Amino acid sequence: MHPSNKIFDQVLVGTWQLSGTHGAIHPKKVLENMHRYFENGFCFWDTADHYGPAEDFLGTFVEEVEERHGRKESEKIKILTKWVPTHPQKRGLPECEIDSAYITKNIDRSLKRLRRDQLYVLQLHWWDYEDQRLYDVMNELCKLKDQGKVLHLAVTNFDAKHFEKLLKDGYPIASNQVRYSLIDRRAEKDMLRVCQTYNVPLLAFGTLCGGLLSEKYLGQDDPERSLSFSEKGLYHKLINQFGGWSQFQDLLHVLDEISKELNCRLSSVASQFILGRKEVSSVIIGSRLQHDHDIDKTKEIPQIFLSKDQREKISNILDRGLHLGDWMGEVASEYRGKAFVEQTSPSLKE
Ligand SMILES: NC(=O)c1ccc[n+]([C@@H]2O[C@H](COP(=O)([O-])OP(=O)(O)OC[C@H]3O[C@@H](n4cnc5c(N)ncnc54)[C@H](OP(=O)(O)O)[C@@H]3O)[C@@H](O)[C@H]2O)c1
After folding, report:
1. Do the beta carbons of residue 254 and residue 314 sit within 8 Å?
2. 254-256-258 Cα angle (round to 5)
3. pLDDT at 341 over 80
4. How many contiguous H segments (helices) and E segments (strands) does the chain have?
5. So where are the chain's domains?
6. 11-344: which CATH topology?
7. What is the pLDDT of residues 99-134, one digit of tens each?
8. What average pLDDT score do residues 213-241 get?
9. What angle do CA 262, 265, 270 make, to 5 degrees?
10. Which residue from 226, 287, 299, 344 has its CB within 8 A of the most atoms of ligand 1, so it is best to mutate?
11. How many CB atoms lie within 10 A of CB 72?
């Protein structure tokens, strides 16, 4: 557990990979792998109401752990889910009234799918800050927290300004979950300052760049055309914005050198670099639960330690790349705003 944080573990298992956009899902295999993660000490899961059947799988998993090992063991499983209030036909906020009944119905659906009486963490996504219903929704979510339906309230993909406003207004926000990796350091622009000021942690996703930060791509030609958008294509776009494939190769070389010094995987060095920031309590590792191979790699991430020299070596390479924050704007701007919603609905997923 991160010394300054009692709510989250350092590594959360991410379930976007179950959304249906990462290849066929074999239910038996998925559940077997969930149990393997649990047996290996991973108890914290990140999911969302819109990740296909992910919440249902987690609900079944919780039930199976209870049947096999008893209630006390199953209660060790902590699930962070998200509520993304979405218009039925497009991305963006629903046009109907988002009142108490509407919110409760959505939260109850997640509770039912997860087979729980209380959501451990509920992370709210908000598409458009001009839509002032945000504050009514936050007030209603606080009521659900008071009633015990939600233990911790959190947000996801909030920019620094609106995250800070919620904190300043006194909303009990446990964390903000954003994309933050070696190639996408927009969080460093202002978000880390907010986290420090209010002592609220960041949960970082995308630290593996969808799997591109790996030995597999070291010394390889640019694979752009062979990448599907939802698995790696989006991250490849970020690599182009960071400085392109050759700049990325320079980064992979440095990570490879350090991974050899530490006798670990290159991907673990990349994730640990972000996890080592004091404002980051956790990294969320997107797991292909339809395969077997990632648990050992994932276990390694919190166990390695990067020296000051090793961190500097990585920072020097990053400083040669473009800083996405300088021109791409605020954290998660790709997930918000009317223009984004209109441009991308309904084809762009996550
Ligand atoms: N809040 C949001 O808007 C939001 C958006 C996106 C994701 N998320 C959350 O964050 C999680 C992770 O983000 P992400 O899926 O975008 O990217 P990610 O964690 O950067 O990449 C996941 C990919 O890395 C590879 N991998 C998995 N474990 C590994 C390990 N230990 N070492 C090396 N490679 C490993 C796998 O690809 P290969 O099998 O190809 O190697 C996997 O599909 C998601 O599952 C989801 O829970 C949240």
Report:
1. yes
2. 70
3. no
4. 14, 8
5. 11-344
6. TIM Barrel (3.20.20)
7. 999 999 999 999 999 999 999 999 999 999 999 999
8. 89
9. 90
10. 287
11. 8
